[in-house]
Amino acid sequence: MRNLIFFLYKYYTFILFFFLEVMSLVILYRYNNYQRASFLNYTGGMASKFYESVNSASNYLSLRRINDSLMYENARLRAQQLNAYYQNGFTLSSIVDTVYKQQYQYISANIVNNSINKRNNYITIDKGRLHGIETDMGVIGSNGVVGIVTSVSDHYATIRSALNSNTKISAMVKKNGAFGSLEWNGDNPRVSSLLHVNKHVPVEIGDEIVTNNYSTLFPVGIPIGTIKEKTLEAEDNFYALDVALFTDFNTLKTVYVIRNILKDEQKNLENNLKGDH
Amino acid sequence: MIIDLLTYLLRFVLLLLIQLLVVNNIELNTYINPYIYPLFILTLPVNTKPWHVVCISFVIGMAMDTFSSTPGLHMAATTFMGYLRIYFLRFAATKEDFESRISPTLSKKGPAWFLFYAFVLLFFHHLLLFYFEVYGFSEFFRTFFRVFLSTIFSVLLIGLGQILFYRVANKTNG
User: Fold this and answer.
1) Which positions in chain A touch B75 (Cβ < 8 Å)?
2) What pLDDT sits at residue A151?
3) Could you tell me whether strands A254-260 and A138-140 are parallel, antiparallel, or unpaired per DSSP bridges?
4) Residue B166's pLDDT band (boundaries 50, 70, 90)?
5) Where are the domains of chain B?
6) pLDDT at position B69, please?
7) Any B CB within 8 A of A50 CB
8) A-B C-beta contacts closer than 8 Å
């Protein structure tokens, strides 16, 4: 007993260090394995509030740029409006209610914190559970794909941006539908990679990459980027395509969170299928 | 004593703010992610009790984690660095240092000693930080390159800061 006390006394610094280090590693391990599920709830959005107040000041400096990108987006959306098209037939207007059922809703949000240079980058936005945001929703900017919602508190949400080693987004080449998985290798915040694209499909440098409908996160055809370079993967059967991203994460200020109304239905159906095996 | 405590608290907050609002926004490229907030741990007086150093390191890591929403990441790195500091000073600091209770800063210990001290401790801090961030060794060399470049840049920033503050301190004294 005396020896034990002596031991504890002699090495108390080491024991303290060991205890704290193991504690941090356990926390690190837990959150890495449970997708950082509710860290935002523990800190009570304190950090988010801090960044929001800092941001409300610094946003004044980039108002012009924000306006420009929003105007550009407005112009693009106007061009897609029904009255921008010449109507070729008469059937569309009468059956529109039964043929088209809304599947996606968009929730606009401002970015309060963002990083682009870490290996795993996260974005914090100023909308949360009270605004209808849930985990695993897709997020886009005015130019293209941004990321996926990972954790939500009442007023804030964090997004795993496309510039993150854990983000994998299902995507395809727009012109022929050759699909692959968009992953970021950590080199350049303007460039990501589309991996595992079948070699036999013809792809050219400059082709546009868009989202496909394999996942429930994004509608089909949300722009991602253009092919910048193509290389063969190690096994020689697949291309790895370098994609120049449309979204400039450095200047990103506003985003839209996508709510897929039919997501639960699709997921349930797919889960039933898994039970069959 | 209270004044001392307040000074340290102020320095703690100031360093954290500089890290979060200024240094985190230096976005040169993905290989250079400098961290200057460990300067707080570096410049604690040499005779600070070892268990104090470890606890302070843990707390500053926790503060950093809260604001960068990376649970456990900075905690693990700073705690290790704080523990390492105890052994580094045991070998590298002289008896007079301990007796006169100085803070190991650039002005007190000279540029060569201080930069070496900062480099070694920051290297281990960055090593743990970046490998834990990637959470694996799948990108071993790329991460190592990132550790190395970031450490050099952090030491550079800290050295510059020390020179500036050293100048200011000199002027106010003289």
Assistant:
1) 20, 23-24, 27-28
2) 85
3) antiparallel
4) low
5) 2-173
6) 76
7) yes
8) 98
Residues of B in contact with A20 (CB under 8 A): 54-55, 58, 75, 79
Q: Which fold has domain A39-84+102-260?
A: Thrombin, subunit H (2.40.10)
| A243 contacts A192 by C-beta, under 8 angstroms | yes
**Of A72, A53, A37, A69, nearest in space to A126 by CA:** A53
Q: Is A54 on the interface with B (CB under 8 A)?
A: yes
Distance between CA atoms of residues B153 and B130, nearest Å:
15
Contact (CB<8Å) B54/A122: no
Q: Which of chain A's residues have a Cβ under 8 Å away from the Cβ of B140?
A: none
* Cβ contact, residue pair A24, B32, below 8 Å: no
Give B160-166 contacts, CB < 8 A, sequence gap 24+.
B161/B36, B161/B39, B162/B105, B162/B106, B162/B107, B162/B114, B163/B106, B166/B105, B166/B106, B166/B107
Structure tokens of B132? 């834990």
According to CATH, the topology of domain B2-173 is Arp2/3 complex 21 kDa subunit ARPC3 (1.10.1760)
Q: Given an 8 Å threshold on Cβ–Cβ distance, is B67 in contact with A50?
A: yes
Query: Where do the structural domains in chain A lie, given as residue ranges?
Result: 39-84+102-260
Residues of A in contact with B133 (CB under 8 A): 118-120
A184 touches chain B (CB under 8 A): no
**Max mean pLDDT range (A29-43, A88-102, B117-131):** B117-131
What is the per-residue pLDDT for A93?
Answer: 43
Non-local (6+) Cβ contacts of B124 within 8 A are B80, B81, B84
**Residue B110 pLDDT:** 85
CA distance B102 to A112: 41
Inter-residue contact A147 to A162 (CB < 8 Å): yes
Smallest CA–CA distance, residue A260 to chain B, in Å, is 27
**Residue of A119, A149, A163 for testing the chain B interface, max B β-carbons within 10 Å:** A119
Complex prediction ipTM? 0.85
C-alpha distances out from residue A198 to A230, A235, B29, Å: 12, 11, 31
